[in-house]
Sequence to fold (549 residues):
Amino acid sequence: MISARRKNRGQQTSDSGGDPVSVSIAEVQARQLVCVTGKVTRMTARPTSGQPALAVTVTDESGTVTAVWTGRRSIGGITLGRRVAIKGMAIQRGAHLEFTNPSYTLLPR
Amino acid sequence: MKVIIAGAGSVGRYMAEQLQSSGHDVTLIDNQVGIVNNRPKDSKRGVTWYLGDACEVATLEAVGAADADVVAAVTGDDEDNLVVSLLSKQEFAVPRVVARVNNPKNEWMFNDMWGVDVSVSTPHLLTGLVEEAVTVGSFVRLLSLEGGKARLAEVTLATNSPAIGKEVLDLGLPRESTVVAVLRGGHVVVPRADTVLHAGDEVLVLVTGGAEDDVRKALVG
Amino acid sequence: MHVIVVGCGRVGSEVARNLSANGHEVVVVDRRAEAFRRLGEDFAGTTMVGVGFDRDLLEAAGITEQSAVAAVTSGDNSNILIARVAKETFGTSHVVARIYDPRRASIYERLGIATVATVAWTSERVLRHLLSVGSTRDWIDPSAKFTMVERRVPADAAGTSIASLESAIAGRVALLHRFGETSIPAAAMLLQEDDQIHVIVSAGNTDLLDQQLHSEGGH
Fold:
């Protein structure tokens, strides 16, 4: 599902109208607007400071990445095994990359 | 480092000056024309001023939030500071977001829910410092880090503290804490495992998780 | 229904009066007591002076998971704070926030908060959001056989394809609004929680539509 890859650094935001680059999960770089597709392989509740949060691990053939939604315990349709597309800006969290409140699209199986 | 500061009041301007003189690339954003126009004419080279609303994605984009290392949301308005923090973290993946808490009642929101890594509540800090100055023998929280997950606290050891005469190693402090410094007679003692504590020592500890109670027991009793 | 309206401006006061007249229990919050004059002498609800994202105030206003909250102050930032506190701290599911800046609106929609932008800004739209299963209609055709209604997709219906919903209700999903973008959805698209859909359906089938959206389907 890889379309034309463009080198796209610089000023892009999730909602600026800049187009996200479709990449495999292994190619995701921090601070680049990307779109990845994969399967939900893990879901964890990650409450912090008394507020709920949901961490969802998405996996494709190349690797895994985590998407975190703050303030929610669940998202309709996001279940183990579901195929999803995630569009957002990944942030470096220690050793791994994470999306915070990204846009998502549920995909048919 | 590239630093963006939202809010060019006295706090923002002070920060800008300090950071710029340490060699960082600083941009100050404010949406009041008067403030931006009346910026000091001998403004140090290197501080960029930008007129705009930092709560708008377009403004953050224009000042290069996409490659900023730090965004400091230090306006006099907590709502603005929270929104700037959220946008910085979520839309621009800024690695470090620092925000100022004006009203302590709002402090509970200044954490990763709004993209805040470090919050500073001046009233809280001041109270803490006052407490620290006048109280001996109690556990004073100074600063919250990592969205509330870690706290810097201070205890001035009273004469009846269980820690007196003990080596740091023998304090029985839980794993989720560490003694950062010991202030003694105007000097900073960098603590080692065999540093012995005395009455009157100001012990600075970093505490994570739920370790506060155990740390309090070890230092206060 | 218990509704908290924060911001007693033109729209806030209209929404509050409307809801109260329809028998709902309404609490209106504003920072300034003078604003409550817009409610009129015979307003049956309660008023509270204060800041709408203050947890103590919301508690005092009687907020529960079953409440509805309309964040309709003149400040986008306040409205988002109010909406998030209501939703995330108190678990209130019927929350709508007024947002002037459409660009910010799409960002907040990713947080799962229903936003109503100024252009489409009427008290009627706010009401429609709060009373999600309602009898409000966007449009009814001249023959009165068909109607277009707006609905917010609940979590239970997430994963249903447009095609299967359309076939179940014998209608069409004309428009889908998601994360700040509106489109004419393809048949294979799957509905997601918080999607706003405009559905054309025969006038008698709006209940069927609501049933389909609120039943727990296997998707």
User: Anything to note?
Assistant: The interface with chain A takes residues 84, 87-89, 103, 106-107, 110-112, 153-159, 161, 179-180, 188, 190, 192-193, 219 of chain C (CB under 8 Å).
